[in-house]
Each structure stands twice: as structure tokens, then as C-alpha cells.
Write a structure and sequence with these properties.
Blueprint: H1 2-57, E1 60-61, H2 68-81, E2 87-91, E3 98-101, E4 109-113, H3 114-119, H4 122-137, H5 141-166, H6 179-201, H7 206-219, H8 222-238, H9 260-264, H10 271-279
Parallel strand pairs: 2-4
Antiparallel strand pairs: 1-2, 3-4
Length: about 280
Amino acid sequence: MGDQIKTFLLLGLLSVILISMGGLVGGKSGLLIAFLIALGMNFVSYWFSDKIVLKMTGAREVSRDEAPILHDIVEELSYRANIPKPRVYITDDPSPNAFATGRDSEHAAVAVTSGILRLLNARELKGVLGHEIGHIKHRDILISSLAAVLASTITFVADMARWAMFFGVDRERDDNNNPLALVGSILMLILAPIAAMLIQFAISRSREFLADEEGAKLSRDPDALADALEKLHRGVEMIPSDTSPALSHMYIVNPLQGDFIANLFSTHPPFEERVRRLRNMRIY
């Protein structure tokens, strides 16, 4: 029930922000248009968030012939987790990372970057994929996928609203000459991207610890995941990703290392703490 409540809160937050921005920038007509957009986005976000996320990351599905080791690992881990085997994707990104997406275990996908395939050995890769399978098993992926789509939508609408104000699209509004309305519009454009980051922050950091623990159990090798996290942390520092900040919470490690704002609102716990916990785990 907790996940359902959080899902509805995220959808509600998107609706409120979109409708508020529509009203501030476009008056009554903007309010109506934003309301209709919010209804549509609620539907699309819930049912198609996985496809949107995969499209945004440029991920492509790979067959067993293309990536036999990857498929074998995913099949083994999903069997141990007692869930259907997720679809397998690869993104052409030199920055090493991985994520899972989908609204439930029946519609799940795991994706790895080309960079992680070059950096990790099979043992370490199993630890990483165990972490992602853990997210699927614990039903984290719907909330993560929704948050990614919602944050991206908020940022996009804020950009569109800024351009609309710049070109004077709202000059027919009744309160166009009202300085308070102008200040409100400007504040909304500033606060909307921050709200997007707060949506990401709403994804509990404890979920990463739980996924680490589950990944260690599924792979039966906590040190493998710990070794992988250390390599990934260094790898992302050397080759940062150009992925959208709205998607950063989905990855196993923060893909925006060195970005002060991204780190300030990061949903990822300190990797040192994650590694310490894994090193202290004992699998029997």
C-alpha cells in the first residue's frame, strides 16, 4: 500500500505543477490546457514509463545471440529471485552504469551501458545485475520510472514556459500587467526544476541499500558487488554521463558525479557506506 500511495502522490504532484504553470503562463486557457495535459501524462506515465525511459536513454534490446553472457546472468538471477526474466537492453554510453525499469516484474527490463561491459568482469557484472533484479523483485521500478518521466516533464514544461514568456505568448492575459503575476510566473519557472529534483529525492535512499543486499544474496557474492561499485564510482568520475539529471536516480551509481546540485539532491547513498555494508555481509 505504501508504494501505491507514493505513486499517487507523485502523479498528483505532477498534475499540480503542470496546472499551476499553465495558469501562471497562459491564464484560464493555459489552465485548461495544462489540466488536459496532466490527465494525459498521468495515463502515459503509468502505462508507458518504461518505454519512455528506454527511449530517453537510447537503449536497444539485445538478443541472446548478441549478448549470451548478459542473458545467462539475467536468466540465472531472475530464476533465483522467482520473477520472470526481464528484457535485456544495452545503451551506447561509455560511462559505466546500469538500471532497471518497468511498471512490474511482468513488464520489466534491465539495461547496461556499453561502458560497464568493458569495465567489469562477469563476476562483478552479476553483482550489479543482482542489484537491478533486486529493484524489480522489491517493486521499486514503477516508482523510479514514474519519477524519471515526471521530472523530465516538469523540466520540459518549465523550458517551454520560459520561452513562451520570452516571446510574449501570454500578453493577452488579463493580469499581464500585474507585477505579482509576473513574479509568480518567474518563481514557478525557477522552482519547477527544483521540484523535479525533489521528486527524485522522494525515492528513498534505503531502497538502494535494500537492492544492494538483495543483489548480494542473489549473486551469492557481496564482495563482487562491492568491487563493482568501487570500479563504477571511479569509472563515472573519469567518464561522466551526459544523461538527463531527471534519470540519474535510476542508475546503480549516480551518473552525474561532480555535479554539485545533482549530488545535493542525490537519491544515492554514499558509495563508501554501500561498500562497507557489503563487505560486512555474510552469505550462508
